[in-house]
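Re: the 156-residue chain
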Amino acid sequence: MHRFWFVTIVLQGTLAYGAELLDMQAPRFVSAGSQAEVQRLCGIDRPIDACTRFIDFALTATCDGADDQWMMSASARILPLVVVLAPDAMTHEYVHISDMRQSASKYLHKLDGTRYSTKDRCEDAASREIAGFASHLKKFAQASNAMRHPGGGRGR
């Protein structure tokens, strides 16, 4: 039990990295009472011990500048929800959250400071990124699952 809390505290501390652009909020937790409940909440049809879903998120992208020197400023907020049946699966779920933090931070750093020749081009790009943010998060989650579950399994 002590190991679990230590890992939780250490990993939550690492979630603040890159906080200037990404606000990865502390996860919310749901303790599933049965395998059927964890499968229903996770949207999966096979036995798993836990899953992480990113239930609330937003990308903010604005443009500042003048004449032909416009620059995008981007930041995001992401709220993870961890559904857990077996408490020993928590460390694994924090690894997925860390993967998402790293992918989202890299994406935001790429967007932030991108230069455009006109205000319209910058604002069009900002609008496209905001509209496509959910799709990017889905790809980041899929990449984490592929890396952490190389046999094609999703979840622990």
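The longest helix spans residues 119-148.
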